[in-house]
Design goal:
Chains A, B: One of its GO terms (molecular function) is DNA binding. Two copies of one chain form a homodimer. By secondary structure, the first copy, chain A, is mainly alpha-helical. Chain A is built from seven helices and two strands.
């Protein structure tokens, strides 16, 4: 089970959601899985900056937080796919608003990072 | 100036916004500053789980990304206050949707963390 110490201060809604989507790639993974990218290899290809270890760790945490569910197909070689749970789908309005802001401000942010 | 390597893949809007609000406390800081908590001491009190060093680092990054501006009053002892910039205010719809989701799902998330 997820062994992290529960942060004392969860009365702020943002601290609560950051517990769930706080990892760097979690929002991207939720967005990608919702747009049909289900397999670890596809998710890695979509997020080349992330190491496979970090992606697997963050997928594991999303699974433990009941945001995604993992389906293993009894095939050779075994096939794994991720799906959003109903709870995970409740995050889509937030994730979409993040995507929209990022899209609208991409040039500005890239300039700021230089 | 902010020396971080620019991640290669910024074509996904979420990767862009995570560059700006990706730090664990940044969304909380934006929310707190917008609700009138301006001084480092007030922000620390509101986020007791965060060390002063981490808060100062994330405030510095928010300032470098033009999300907040810092005002130093020529008094003894000197007084410092943070304000959202117009660019920072453009994040408020996203931050509010995060706060709302967190508020609505607080009990569920706390159960999941146990």
């Amino acid at each position: 089970m997820y062994e992290r110490k529960i942060p004392k201060k969860l009365d702020c809604g943002i601290a609560v959601i950051m517990e769930v989507i706080g990892g760097k790639w979690k929002s991207c993974l939720i967005y990608n899985i919702n747009s049909g990218l289900r397999r670890p290899g596809e998710l890695q290809k979509q997020n080349p900056d992330a190491s496979r270890r970090v992606l697997n760790q963050q997928l594991k945490e999303l699974e433990e937080h009941k945001i995604v569910r993992r389906v293993i197909y009894a095939e050779l070689p075994p096939r794994v796919e991720y799906f959003l749970t109903e709870f995970g789908e409740s995050l889509l309005p937030v994730v979409r608003s993040m995507e929209k802001w990022g899209d609208e401000n991409k040039e500005l942010v890239i300039d700021l990072l230089e």
